[in-house]
Amino acid sequence: MLLYKNIRMKIILLFIAIISFTQNAYTDVGNETGLEIPRYVSLKSNDANIRVGPSKNYPIKIKYIKKDYPLKVLEEYEDWRKVEDFKMNIGWIHKSLISGNRTGIVLSKNNKNIKLLNTLGGNVIGEIGQGNIVYLTKCKIDWCYVAVKNFKGWMNKKYIWGVKEKEIIKINFLQRFEDLYWKSINFLNNIKNEY
């Protein structure tokens, strides 16, 4: 019996090691935090400086005045993070000025407004213009559920800077039932509108 438990424990540890290795083999991690690089973060305040190097001794390159502005972390050095914004400006910011809250910036060609849907493939409930900051509540493979002011809805991920192409954020098992509910409501509304 003891031999069986010992073998089982070794198998479990082997699986844990394999899973850890395969997850880390395909992603870079920061030297200071152990978090994935690159990753997206947002500004904590309306006053944040991006510097030329990782110290207050370096000159300020850009001054951001918009809280929740999304940035991409590219590198880590002690208490400093090398970041990039959606305009491809790169510089260093102190870690105390950023948070893990996920936001994005709406991008579109020709300043076209982007439709906000009540569900995937559902009805249009609003539009969001280029340059607006949206809060990423959850994301599927190609869509994100976003919030901006009093509006909440689904938006095609290709119009959002601040989320990776196939990144999934906070999607749980019950999401499928919620999607089915809204598809049913939309289907019934479309039938009702036809008659």
If you had to describe this structure to a student in words, what would you say it looks like?
By secondary structure, the protein is α+β, with helices and mostly antiparallel strands. The protein has 2 domains: 73 residues, SH3 Domains (SH3 type barrels), CATH 2.30.30; 82 residues, SH3 type barrels, CATH 2.30.30. The protein is built from 2 helices and 16 strands. A 5-stranded antiparallel beta sheet has the order 8-7-6-3-9, with no helix packed on it. Strands 15-14-13-10-16 form a 5-stranded antiparallel beta sheet, with no helix packed on it. Strands 1-2 form a two-stranded antiparallel ribbon. Strand 11 and strand 12 form a beta hairpin. The protein is flat. About 4% of the residues have low confidence.
CATH fold name of the largest domain, please? SH3 type barrels
> What's the architecture of the largest domain, going by CATH?
Roll
Question: What is the helix/strand order?
Answer: HEEEEEEEEEEEEEEEEH
Helix content: 10-25%
Strand order of the largest sheet: 8-7-6-3-9
Q: Whole-Å distance between the termini?
A: 71 Å
The whole-number mean of residue pLDDT values reads 86
CATH class of the largest domain: Mainly Beta
Instruction: State the secondary-structure class.
Output: alpha+beta
Number of strands: 16
Biggest β-sheet description? 5 strands, antiparallel
Choose one word for the global shape: flat
Number of helices: 2
Strand fraction: 35-45%
Low-pLDDT residue intervals, each spanning 5 or more residues: 19-25
What Rg is obtained from the alpha carbons, in whole angstroms? 22 Å
**How many domain modules?**
2
